[in-house]
Amino acid sequence: MSLSAPVPEGDPDSLIAALAQAGRAAQAQLAQLGPERRKAGLRAAAKALVAGGSAILEANAKDMTAGEARGLSAAMLDRLRLDPERLGGIAEAVAAVAGLPDPVGQVIDRTERPNGLVLSRVRVPIGLIGIIYESRPNVTADAAALCLGSGNAALLRGGSEAVHSNRAIHAAMVAGLVEAGLPANAVQLVPSQDRALVGSMLTAAGVIDMIVPRGGKSLVARVQADARVPVLAHLDGINHTYVHAAADPAKAVAIARNAKLRRTGVCGAMETLLIDARYPESAGLVAALLDAGCELRGDARACALDRRILPATDQDWDTEYLDAILSVAVVDGLDAALAHIARHGSHHTDAIVTEDQAVAERFLAEVDSAIVMHNASSQFADGGEFGLGAEIGIATGRLHARGPVALEGLTTYKWLVRGTGQVRP
Amino acid sequence: MSLSAPVPEGDPDSLIAALAQAGRAAQAQLAQLGPERRKAGLRAAAKALVAGGSAILEANAKDMTAGEARGLSAAMLDRLRLDPERLGGIAEAVAAVAGLPDPVGQVIDRTERPNGLVLSRVRVPIGLIGIIYESRPNVTADAAALCLGSGNAALLRGGSEAVHSNRAIHAAMVAGLVEAGLPANAVQLVPSQDRALVGSMLTAAGVIDMIVPRGGKSLVARVQADARVPVLAHLDGINHTYVHAAADPAKAVAIARNAKLRRTGVCGAMETLLIDARYPESAGLVAALLDAGCELRGDARACALDRRILPATDQDWDTEYLDAILSVAVVDGLDAALAHIARHGSHHTDAIVTEDQAVAERFLAEVDSAIVMHNASSQFADGGEFGLGAEIGIATGRLHARGPVALEGLTTYKWLVRGTGQVRP
Asked: Which pLDDT tens digit goes with each residue over B1-30?
């Protein structure tokens, strides 16, 4: 039994166009069904993921066998692997989206004009969101749930490694949606792994409204380079923590260790530590990181702090290690720190540690990043930690949405104008 | 005396990159100078436009002479022409932007997390805005003022017809800005009319943050087709007015006449009239438009209403006349009207005339356009009429900003996170 649209014949562009048309039609139906029906659909999809667990795990076992045969790395196999516990977590995350406040229909502002016209801006779904992702099968469920939770239709294109897992997860979710009276095409999975289809998605301006790439840097870079559709993404998280002269030493050590080492592979991890030349406890700060097993690569003044610090090359300042490696520079005051961040940062998350409130406020005002922090670990850069309940990703572009993006970032608005017969003079 | 950066040598991409770099540096300075200094700069620029009036009018006379020699149409010459009154209006519009509420620094929302982190989203300028426009020299001043009023730097590229006028307006404004202590490069005019420079602006992703095209459909279409930088624009205003069965006949006539004929060349003008088959006064409605000198092109049922109505072709439903011509279709109820608009509309401005509140609310909810109106003329689609004080344009894209865009639409936001030493568990 297939719950999705039949696969159309023809070239990649025609296939994507047909899927997009079906998705847009489903999105229009969603709009008429209203938020409670969408929430019921999400809960039914979550239940179907649990009910269909054995089929999903069987499909995942196929992907794991194929992945091992293809010699995928242990890290990749771990990303791919599902077990009952992980699947339960995926289902819970889908149900949790149903519990989030619904942004659709929210009134942003309302004004009455002197001529009596009443204007309001009301949040509406963006439309059809394309998600292009790699080997993590949980993205199939997460992304679909966030799109549905904001009234959008989703067109999913997952990685080849997870093809069976993704199909099984998708089939279960769609069965749940249909049971709850939602259109099957609200969530579609691109039915072929032909790579040309990714190109067709990226150039489908006007029929796909936004693309969200989820995966490593090479995927995001390709999507950003080739897309004609607006892209919501971040390429790098070259995040700085600046320990100011007036930093509290205990906070500096705790924040630096957490920002770098709590999890080294996340986009919110610190990659460069800037230490003020007048900070009195710099030797203790770098020693704490070295003692915790972090490799440090420093400029000349940083290397003078501890013999274990390796000399940094020019390239280090522009590198996102995603590992227990950190570049360290000693800087002369706030302006030098701001200049370093402006030159080498990736506009993701940058932080200052200081007890000087005026310096903190200047840092918050002048650093041009999606997230700027004072006395906190950059690893808080996360939609869940920000209270958004989830996230489709973190955006470092300048338009539409910045930083962690969840339901609100998947909406746009329209102007409603209510009159009583007004004509323009 | 040149107040702008010297023209760099080299290919178009390098020239645009150098201008963009200078603009970005000036924008960073603007951020530090704060809103009052920007407002003072706008007022000084407005004064300088008046003080430099004779030089500007002389430059404009050169453009007019050249335009006449090149055989520009009367309409184009009128767009190009400046006189003391028009120049006074331009200066007043610049000064008026200084009187608008400043969006920069506005706190969008603020939350405190259970762990004590305080999060706020604060509006910040987008950065460097590129404006590509045609023969109207007033755009030089308008666009520069709106960019400055929202803390952005502007890179302007006007049409060849207005080259002398644009240079004179730009020089006067920059003199005013510099006098008020603002950086000269906050507003730059691309110093050559080489068409390749437009291409370089459109592909300068990462150094120009947004492009706003201002001009006719062919300019906007080219910009949308070639740009790698995000574009804020509308291509068409194929705006519908649906006269429902329960419309008040007096309102229907007044709104339809105003929406079509007040000014036929504006993007908010009605281009298609949809008349409900059950509306009892349809003959009077079309007669009022015909009597006012409007050409009507109708479907078979519309043609039956009045012998003066010409038969419409398929193409008419997708045509933005920008003239005293209107397509007219008779539709069977709200659903048919919604289907017609979904198929032929351009997501700009669509309106319903009805006394039935429930029908009006369905129309407002279901029409997917930047602006949806009830009992009002679509010619109200304008930033000034919406109370925004001005507009850089009307956007029909789905992301970032929709409908009339003024200062707020020229900003983005960043997240500020204020902690007391929190680390992530």
From this structure: 334 445 555 799 999 999 999 999 999 999
pLDDT average, residue stretch A274-282: 98
> Which residue from A124, A230, A250 is facing B230, i.e. has the nearest CB?
A230
Across the interface, of A258, A370, A417, the residue whose CB is closest to B373 is: A417
- The average pLDDT across B397-405 equals 94
- What does the pLDDT look like over B107-122, one tens digit per residue? 999 999 999 999 999 9
Query: What is the amino acid identity at position A105?
Result: G
Longest dimension (CA), chain A: 79
Tell me the average pLDDT across A69-75: 93
Give B4's contacts (C-beta < 8 A, 6+ positions apart): B170, B174, B184, B185, B188, B189, B191
| Every domain of chain B and the residues it spans | 12-232+405-416, 239-385
> Would you say the pTM of this structure is higher than 0.90?
yes
Residue A204 near residue A229, CB atoms below 8 Å? yes
What CATH topology corresponds to A12-232+405-416? Aldehyde Dehydrogenase; Chain A, domain 1 (3.40.605)
Contact B415, B119 (CB under 8 A): yes
Contacts of B32 in chain A (CB under 8 A): 366
Cα–Cα distance measured from residue A393 to residue A234, given in angstroms and rounded to the nearest whole number? 8
Distance CA A383, CA A145 (A): 15
CATH topology of domain B239-385: Aldehyde Dehydrogenase; Chain A, domain 2 (3.40.309)
pLDDT averaged over every residue in chain B: 95
Interchain contact, A379 vs B113, CB within 8 Å = no
Number of C-beta neighbours around residue B311 at 10 A: 11
Query: What is this model's ipTM?
Result: 0.94
